[in-house]
Design brief:
91 residues; mainly alpha; two-stranded antiparallel ribbon; 2 helices; rod-shaped
Length: 91
Amino acid sequence: MQGRTIDEVKSHKHFYRDNFRRGVKLLFWLLILMLVLIVVTFYLFTTWPEADYYATSTDGKLVRILPVARGTGLVDPEDQRDLVNRENQGS
C-alpha cells in the first residue's frame, strides 16, 4: 500500500510539472502575440493618413473644408493658398 502511495505522489508531481510547463509556454506565446499587436497598433497609429473633409454647396459641388491653424482659430494662409492653386489648376 505504501508503494502505491509513492507512485501516486510521483504521478501528481509529473502532472503539476507538465501543466506548469504548458502554462509557461502559453504565457510566452501570449506575450509575443501581445507585443506584435502593440507594434502593429503603434505603426498604424503613426502612419495613418490625415482625413480630408468636404462639404457640399447649394448647387451640389464638393468644397474641401480647410484645416484650422492650431490655437488661433484662423485658417492657415499656406493651406489656403495651396488649396486655391489646386482648385484653379483643376478647373
